[in-house]
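In this section we walk through a basic example: taking a raw amino acid sequence and producing a predicted 3D structure, encoded as discrete structure tokens. The instruction is simple. Fold the sequence below.
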Amino acid sequence: MSRDVNRRRPSPRRSLVRTLALVLAVLLSLTSCSSPPEPPGPQVDSMSGAASTTVSDRGFVLAMGTVKIQAAADVAPLGTAVDLRIVDTPDSIAELDMTGSPVFDLVLGDGMQPQSPIRVEWTPPSDVDPTTVAFITDPGGGQWAPVPTTVFEDGTVVAHMDHLSWGWFADARKLVDSFVGFTSEFLGQSYPEPQPCVTEVEPGGSRVKLTTASTAIHACLGQSEDTVELSIQSNSPYVWLVKKTDGVLRQSSSTPSTNAIITELLYNSIYGSLDTYSGFVAPGFVTTLTVDRNEADGVEVRGSLDAGLGLVPVLVSGVDMALTVSGVTLFGDYEDYVTLAQCVFSSNDLLQSASAADASKTLPSIIDCGMSLVEASSGESAFGPARVVLALVGSLSGQLVTQVRGMYDSLVNPSFTVQLESNLALDASTLLTFRGAGPIALGSSSKELIRLGLFKDHECGPTAVGLAEKLGIHVDPGMNDEVVTVTIVDDSPLRTEAGAGLGTTFGDLRKLYGQAMTDEIKDGNGGPFPVTVLRDGALEMVFVRGWDDENANPERVSDHERVTTISVREASQDMYGGC
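The resulting token sequence is shown next.
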């Protein structure tokens, strides 16, 4: 709706002008049958800053200085009066000290709305960059709203109005520079490293260290007797999605902020139900991965940049900056943060998809939510310069986001990887040798292995736990605590350097080792039993078959039988089991 001041009946003088214009149009049409009639030309009152015409079968054109307005014939019934006038600059605009076109009011008839969009164009002065020109309208009460603009090759800036009201083209270069400058500073900022922050710990006697090549995050280690805690915090304002990883990942917000709350809401709505990700790393959060100390070796946390999700909090900060320019503080209490975040989330349909929101379409939502929040807190329907500034930002949202995205892409590394490495380099690829398996070696201290969490004490000797248990490794200690036998059992995945392991047939075993392998009879708990043996000086590697075949050859293991136990130890005729 246009303002009441524009609903007054035309003065007799204005009616006369309209009548003369119609007569002139008829005469012109009668004298020119070879070409269609032109729309009536505007009648300009240079003293009052007004122009008038009517809608013809070719629409209408009105021009006043550098502002030109035109529409098609279906904009309103033929003969409808069209009035354009310059109005006094509102205080909310004057306070911003920005240049631009005159503020104008366009009226159809007695206040009807157009049935098709009206094209409005402005030719800015040569010292104004057309790409930074915004167009905003005010339907009444100072509630300025953004309208997107298009810049043509000749420098003309065009907008389309589908609701008539006051309009204004603004040279928003100062605002754009402030927005882009603030965003650039925001994107380049860093966050202090947590204190204390260590990259190497020794839980239960083992040693675990982390490595990362990224400077965009802070990665630190913590420990308990049984676990290692890897914490990741942001050293930049970006948002990464964390790939699904082993261990228990949790996130906690350090201090409530608009960016933190919006990021968490958007992540949960877009990615929270997907198995692909474990969580995210973003400012305002500590992302922590907890793993068993014996399973820390080789653990990785991978983060991939999410540009759309990351730009949303950046743009929120930019809008906050724009409001600050006009002297308005948008964010205050914690409830304000939540209200804004929920508003942004619920007002943008793109956030329901399986990908992050397109930032250029999210920015107007952020602006609308910011306006609603300020209005709700102030109890007023308009708030002067702040409304104008937000409308200007909204009009230029596409261009602003393009610039921000360009800065964002040039600054950001697309991913990060944090990897843990343990001195217990013990996994399925560990080889069984004449010295044992990895750190579980002949001559090592069984008490040290217990302290490392690989074994626990038992009345019958050390019992495997953690990695040692998973790898099916057993040990026997000697009189002085030193490990004298390392044995693999229970479907252990470990292999010898030649590739022999549990499940290998004795026929294949003999092919692997040829004449180096000998058949022997050992003395055991149940009496003599056949084995095959490899020797390395005073050490031996003994391959044992299963015990459940009563018809097996008591003198020699057959080729078709399979290995069920392998032991490395000092060579001996005796081979007794434990209690």
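Looking at the output, two observations stand out. Residues 1-38, 40-48, 351-356 have pLDDT under 50 and may be disordered. The longest strand covers residues 527-536. In the next section we compare this with other chains.
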